[in-house]
Amino acid sequence: MILQGTITVAHDDGSEITVSAGEAYSFAPGHDAWVVGDEEVIGYEFNNTGKDYAVWQSDE
């Protein structure tokens, strides 16, 4: 979730996405990102890797 500013992300497959304040995103592994413009970017990132409860519960 971006709280302030804008970033552009380029994935290894060549696809790009630009996200700005107020937008949520999901980026695949293998990407590069940079700030667009002069405004500082403030955001929250969440990682669900390795979760084994609630909706992430595995069948193993």
Describe the fold and architecture.
Helices cover 0% and strands 35% of the residues. The chain has 60 residues and is mainly beta. The strands form two sheets. The protein has a three-stranded antiparallel β-sheet, with no helix packed on it. It has strands spanning 2-4, 6-11, 16-20, 31-35, 42-43. It contains no helices and five strands. It has one domain (2-46).
Structural class: mainly beta
Largest sheet: 3 strands, antiparallel
Calculate the mean pLDDT score and round it. Answer: 85
The portion of residues assigned to helices is under 10%
- Strand content of the residues, in percent? 35-45%
Short description:
The chain is an all-beta fold and 60 residues long. The protein has strands at residues 2-4, 6-11, 16-20, 31-35, 42-43. 0% of the residues lie in helices and 35% in strands.
Relevant terms:
35% strand; 0% helix; two-stranded antiparallel sheet; single chain; three-stranded antiparallel β-sheet; 5 strands
SSE inventory with pairings:
Elements: E1 2-4, E2 6-11, E3 16-20, E4 31-35, E5 42-43
